[in-house]
Design a protein that fits this description.
It is built from 15 helices and 17 strands. Helix 14 crosses helix 15. The model has no long low-confidence stretch (mean pLDDT 97).
């Protein structure tokens, strides 16, 4: 019998590759929007696993789906199909513009598939001259070499040798900068309808519509990365449904599985036809466990009760941050939509977002940052209103602590 391993934060440093620097506490249990660490200390969760835990921790619908499917089928490979994958794809196509779905394991993989499909479509329909992919500065699309190159943050893509070519970046919310480099050689424009990691920056409606028109003009595909904005996060199933712009390809992950790894690329039948058998694949993509859990999540999230509740909770967050700010004067604005919100720090606290995150943890609250100047909130979509109130009381203590340390 193997001996028990004493799991400590220090052991992490001894056994893990050092590309992460996690908090000093180790969570061991979660229920709803509360989490407990090894010491039994309780936290209110405003981070949601970075916009993933859309139904909180251990939601009964998810636990039941996982338990039931876990006693039936776990993995088959894509030599065979399975019922949960087909049912989930049917529900996704019924609820969106899409007619076809490709399943993967993550947002990066969904985006990789979208980019490869766009290139293949352009090659087969228009010829090899049409290969330019345009994306936006401060955008984020994942960490594979292709997706990190398309993402607009050099800090993530530099230092790994030659990058995939014919990828260019322009300013977000600046239609003129896009128009200046678009041509009939443009294969696709990839964008988040609201930039998440880049600082919670919503796309202006006129900008998003202008991008769609430029894509139409140059026969380019519009790819919406809705990995963070999607699956109820903004108060509709996908953000595109609120901005009057329909993409050609949409990618989804994070909240799609509510905490179980799954990604999806959604598109039309005409475009999907270019990923013929053998052109792309995934060993685990569309596995029965992930799809069964995701289907259960969708059945809860894609309801008026939950989606309307997101908008109500958004207002609670905004009101609470405003009340805190009236006392302490640290934020310039709260950006975002639904429960993807960013409190932007004013000049006095520029670059200090991580201090607020660390102080919040000290007071029993989990928050996120989006760059060095924005404190980000991405809680469960069904977070109880009492937990919002309690979490904001803890956040106020954290703000007061940071302010007094710079007094």
């Amino acid at each position: 019998m193997s001996e028990a391993i004493s799991v400590t934060r220090a052991l992490f440093d001894d056994v893990m590759v050092p590309n992460y620097n996690p908090a000093n506490f180790i969570p061991v249990k979660g229920e709803g929007s509360r989490v407990w660490d090894q010491e039994g200390r309780e936290y209110v969760d405003f981070a949601g696993g970075i916009a993933v835990n859309c139904l909180g921790h251990c939601h009964p619908a998810m636990v039941n789906a996982l338990t039931e499917q876990g006693q039936k089928l776990w993995h088959l490979s894509n030599v065979l199909t399975n019922e949960p994958a087909i049912r989930l794809a049917k529900k996704l196509t019924d609820a969106t513009f899409a007619e076809r779905v490709y399943f993967a394991n993550s947002g990066a993989e969904a985006n990789e598939a979208a980019l490869k499909l766009a290139r293949r479509w352009a090659l087969e329909v228009h010829g090899e001259e049409k290969q330019q992919i345009i994306a936006f500065q401060k955008g984020f699309h994942g960490r594979t070499f292709f997706t990190v190159t398309v993402g607009g943050q050099a800090a993530y893509s530099d230092g790994f040798g030659p990058k995939p070519g014919a990828v260019e970046h322009v300013e977000y919310n600046d239609l003129a900068s896009l128009e200046a480099i678009m041509s009939d050689k443009t294969c696709a424009v990839m964008m988040e309808p609201m930039q998440g990691e880049g600082g919670v920056i919503p796309g202006d409606e006129s900008f998003l519509k202008g991008v769609r028109e430029l894509c139409n003009k140059h026969n380019a595909l519009l790819i919406f990365d809705e990995v963070q904005t999607g699956f109820g996060r903004t108060g509709s199933l996908y953000a595109y449904q609120q901005c009057g712009v329909t993409p050609d390809i949409l990618t989804s992950a994070k909240a799609l599985g509510g905490g179980f790894p799954i990604g999806a690329m959604l598109t039309t039948a005409e475009i999907a036809a270019h990923l013929k058998p053998g052109t792309h694949g995934s060993t685990y993509g569309g596995n029965p466990l992930a799809c069964a859990v995701s289907e259960a999540v969708m059945d809860v999230v894609n309801t008026p009760e939950v989606l309307d509740g997101v908008k109500r909770r958004e207002q609670m967050f905004r009101d609470a941050v405003q009340a805190i700010n009236e006392k302490y004067d640290v934020f310039t604005e709260v950006r975002g939509q639904g429960l993807l919100l960013g409190a932007a720090l004013n000049d006095k606290f520029k670059g200090k977002a991580r201090e607020f995150l660390l102080a919040a943890a000290e007071h029993g609250l989990m928050v996120l940052i989006a760059g060095a100047d924005v404190v980000r909130f991405t809680p469960s979509l069904v977070i109880p209103e009492t937990d919002i109130a309690e979490g904001m009381q803890r956040f106020e203590k954290a703000v007061a602590q940071v302010v007094s340390s710079h007094g």
